[in-house]
Predict the structure.
Amino acid sequence: MTLSDLLTYLRARKAGVYYSDVAGALGIPTLRIVRAERTHTVPNLTPDELGRLAEYFEVPVEELRQAQRQTRHDLTTYLGTQERAGAPAYLRLLGGIAVAGPVVWRDRHAVAVQQPDQSVFVVYRSSVEAWGETKDE
Amino acid sequence: MPYNSLRPVREKKGMTIAQVAGKTSISIRTLQSYEAGERAISADDLRKLSRVLYASTTELLQPTVPPPPPPAPPPRPVEPAPVREAVPVTPAADLADRLPGDVRAEAEVHRPPSGRPSFGRPPSPRPPRPPREPFTPRPPGPSTAGQIDQIRNLGRRLGLDDSALVERIGASLESLDHTAARAAIAVLRKDMEESGTWQPRVQESPDQEAEYLAKLRDRRVPIDVVLINGERFQGLIESFTPYVVQLRDVQSGADVYVRKLAIAYYRTEGPAHDAQ
């Protein structure tokens, strides 16, 4: 999971706190939190800010550092490439659920994947743990 | 009409009537009539003149003696003609008629067509322009450091070492000028695109979900929503905003408002061809 999506997930898990709540509690400007969730590149959060975020969300700071190794753009590029090629996208969600299928549509928050029974699975990016793996993996 | 002090004040400031007219938007003729005492200065114009001439209205309206008329030129002493010649003195007006024909024609040539008198020397004819030199494009400048860095980066991403890069470009990096460097970058980019190493940036659509949710709502397609904490809700979409979805349970009719932030995923129950 990218740091951008992980921060969204952590906000949701902490009773859906708003950007301003996080910013106020940590003394970080609200705009930096917003940008960290929305940027396509690696969020430019300092190690100190990462430490404060980890403490606030009650997760190990290493988890945030790990998420910082991938950019939001990586998942977007994968989905865009699969969509353009008409190839199935493989997504593994938090909780171990795997979803695979052609991309029907995608936007900033979610991606819709068609299932073999023709139903549509709409996955929010904040719940995508990994991507690009085959079903067997 | 008493004379005012407009003219002395203006001359003291070293301004001409035309300059005052340009700054106050009062016509020259009106200014002349003010200075000559033919008209009283209107209140509006007085205010403008006071501002432009840096003088109080009282100072401008102070009566003065009229300027003396310009002195008449002294009459030319006419020397009495010698008696021996016995030529009568002729008036000046008659002299013009006595000019030779070619001299009068030349005087007419120098008179402007509008009939106004010409001042100064007549304009001298312009010298002919030298012929223009044929346009020659400037030679391209040297390549920039950024271009060379970009070529090296593209070569590295293509897996080309320095010798292979020089062979692909056809010249050494140091010998490239600005145009050749740009062409080399274009060639390497095309190579990368063809090899699949480089792909154009994929954009994120701003909002596709709203359209999809609207179709599900309009076609009464039931959905199964799972939140990040594992809770499940099933029902029909009654309404939605960018942040919240309102679900109505089919059997009980109860409404549930779900924040999108809390949703992990949702799926249609069965085929959803119509909603795609």
